[in-house]
């Protein structure tokens, strides 16, 4: 219901001892106020009603005389921090607890409108609840929601039909007493979703999702979702889809056939956090056009994955996706890679010449990864190819027309590079038509369980293991960790854990040291030092890394240990321990 200060009327009329009797009388005769507060230095001292004015006239007070101390002390005050629920008398004058200054009033009118609003809110929430309930029961999917102890809190009609137990009977029971072979208790322990799993129920194979509900770093419950009534239903869908694709394939006449590889869809880019959902929404729109896309984001966030999904689902999908890592190719070879060369163009040139990447991407997409590492001279040539839509092989005379979509990616701040003259402004604007920023994993930690679940399935398949689970404490450390290497790092950590732990359960003690560093040190490592320093530091042994950070911070604060400890997020005692350990 809220506090008094949220509801009180602050526009109240006040009287002072200097008000003339006729003015006080007029205000009260107006009828809006039954009584008015009389204040002195902002503090309430009395209340005055119309009877007090009449009594003053009868007592001989002149019409133009100041009212002075008429009225009574018969009033109630309350503090503005009181809860509305505690009110049972009106009017109430609201004063500030410390200064006693009059702030407002709660009249019968306010109280009535408060009650009306509360009733309306209640009715609205009841209506919303009814809608939720209706959707819940109308859904084709069976839905069961449990709390953190595995007790069923919500259960819908569909699930009830499948297990042969009424909703009323199921709610309040442990889930394993209601759903046979359920793994929801395991999901509550691991905190990792299990999607598209086959589940045998009442002698029939069903497809289910089991999803943990995470809140403030804790698993507070789980949702069990029965999505298909039988595995055969999926087979039907797949058969239909296969037939459709075949039809499409037959009707398209392509001159430039792509190399067969698995197509990437946006659904394969795992993540449901608002940050990644928004990015996927923009990318889906980008796929509908041929305009250049400039993808930015830290290393390992999934820039190439997005580029592939845009190509594979977009209008250029019938052509090739040609990927060029500009940082990995030596500068002197980059141009021949991109533009190709003719026979005899230089010593060592291949017989018959060679097609460049732009030619290969004709009717498809060229993905220029790490474009920030491209030399300025090559940038100028790229700009020409984009503008002219034709490419000239090295040593060649004839321009070759090319039609391609360009997607560039970088983990550098191109705008800053443009300002410093390290990247061509004209090329930047040519590429910056559809900018797409991929957020780092630390800004979408909500996606961690889903990514883990996806990777665990892949690893189980690769290593031929049926099941391997992760301790909830491990998950919590994963949530706390800063993930400087983003998704690539997460996938690598999982693979390492998978390969190195022989048991079926990954425990906290299996984790590498970096997961136990203080968050401040992690943050410092990721944000404050330049990328190349961070990369070098990561290759060093973890302790060496910590030593480097401490040294750096100490230098920055000119040896002030208290300040250094504060910046590192550790106590002074811990800092002293570390200093003696590292002999600093
Ligand atoms: N949302 C995601 N779901 C599943 N896997 C992902 C996701 N994003 C990235 N990956 C995987 O993480 C790894 C790194 O992704 P990718 O190479 O696309 O990142 P990048 O940003 O292009 O990295 P770099 O800057 O180093 O080139 C790949 O193995 C990729 O398949």
TrEMBL record:
Coiled-coil regions listed: none
Origin superkingdom: Bacteria
Keywords: ATP-binding, DNA-binding, Nucleotide-binding, Transcription, Transcription regulation
UniProt xrefs under SUPFAM superfamilies: CBS-domain pair (SSF54631), Homeodomain-like (SSF46689), P-loop containing nucleoside triphosphate hydrolases (SSF52540), PYP-like sensor domain (PAS domain) (SSF55785)
Start and end residues of each PAS domain: 128-173
Residue span(s) of domain Sigma-54 factor interaction: 269-499
Pfam families found in the cross-reference section: AAA_lid_14, HTH_8, Sigma54_activat
The name this protein goes by in its record: Sigma 54-interacting transcriptional regulator
Lineage, top ranks: Bacteria, Bacillati, Bacillota, Bacilli, Bacillales
């Amino acid at each position: 219901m809220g506090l008094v200060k949220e509801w009180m009327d602050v526009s109240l009329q006040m009287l002072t001892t200097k008000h003339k009797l006729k003015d006080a009388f007029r205000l009260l005769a107006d009828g809006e106020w039954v009584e008015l507060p009389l204040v002195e230095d902002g503090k309430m001292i009395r209340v005055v009603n119309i009877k007090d004015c009449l009594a003053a006239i009868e007592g001989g007070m002149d019409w133009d005389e100041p009212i002075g101390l008429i009225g009574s002390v018969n009033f109630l005050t309350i503090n503005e921090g009181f809860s509305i629920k505690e009110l049972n008398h009106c009017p109430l004058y609201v004063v500030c607890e410390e200064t006693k200054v009059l702030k407002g009033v709660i009249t019968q009118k306010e109280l009535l409108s408060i009650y009306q609003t509360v009733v309306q809110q209640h009715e609205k929430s009841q209506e919303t609840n009814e809608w939720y309930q209706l959707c819940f029961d109308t859904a084709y999917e069976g839905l069961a929601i449990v709390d953190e102890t595995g007790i069923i809190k919500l259960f819908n009609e569909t699930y009830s039909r499948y297990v042969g137990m009424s909703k009323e009977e199921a709610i309040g029971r442990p889930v394993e007493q209601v759903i046979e072979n359920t793994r929801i208790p395991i999901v509550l322990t691991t905190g990792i979703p299990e999607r598209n799993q086959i589940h045998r129920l009442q002698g029939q194979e069903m497809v289910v999702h089991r999803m943990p509900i995470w809140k403030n770093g804790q698993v507070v419950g789980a949702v069990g979702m029965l999505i298909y009534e039988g595995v055969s239903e999926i087979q039907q869908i797949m058969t239909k889809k296969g037939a459709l694709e075949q039809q499409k394939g037959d009707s398209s006449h392509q001159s430039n056939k792509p190399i067969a590889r698995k197509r990437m869809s946006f659904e394969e880019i795992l993540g449901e956090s608002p940050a990644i959902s928004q990015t996927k929404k923009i990318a889906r729109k980008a796929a509908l056009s041929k305009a250049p896309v400039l993808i930015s984001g830290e290393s390992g966030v999934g820039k190439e994955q997005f580029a592939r999904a845009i190509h594979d689902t977009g209008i250029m999908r019938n052509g090739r996706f040609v990927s060029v890592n500009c940082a990995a190719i030596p500068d002197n070879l980059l141009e021949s890679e991109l533009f190709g060369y003719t026979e005899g163009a230089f010593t060592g040139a291949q017989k018959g010449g060679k097609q460049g990447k732009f030619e290969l991407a004709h009717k498809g997409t060229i993905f220029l990864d790490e474009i920030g590492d491209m030399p300025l001279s090559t940038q100028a040539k790229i700009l020409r190819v984009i503008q002219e839509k034709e490419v000239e092989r090295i040593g060649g005379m004839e321009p070759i027309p090319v039609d391609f979509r360009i997607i560039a990616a970088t983990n550098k701040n191109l705008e800053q590079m443009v300002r410093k003259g390290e990247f061509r402004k004209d090329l930047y604007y040519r590429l910056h038509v559809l900018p797409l920023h991929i957020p780092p994993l630390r800004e979408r930690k909500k996606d961690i369980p889903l990514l883990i679940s996806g990777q665990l399935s892949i690893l189980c398949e690769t290593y031929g293991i049926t099941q391997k689970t992760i301790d909830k404490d491990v998950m919590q450390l994963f949530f706390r960790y800063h993930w400087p290497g983003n998704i690539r790092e997460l996938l690598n950590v999982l693979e390492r854990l998978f390969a190195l732990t022989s048991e079926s359960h990954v425990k906290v003690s299996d984790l590498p040291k970096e997961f136990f560093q203080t968050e401040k040190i992690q943050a410092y490592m990721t944000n404050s030092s330049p990328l190349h320093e961070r990369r070098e530091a990561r290759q060093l042994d973890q302790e060496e890394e910590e030593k480097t950070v401490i040294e750096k911070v100490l230098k920055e604060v000119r040896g002030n240990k208290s300040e250094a400890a504060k910046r590192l997020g550790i106590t002074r005692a811990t800092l002293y321990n570390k200093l003696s350990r590292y002999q600093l």
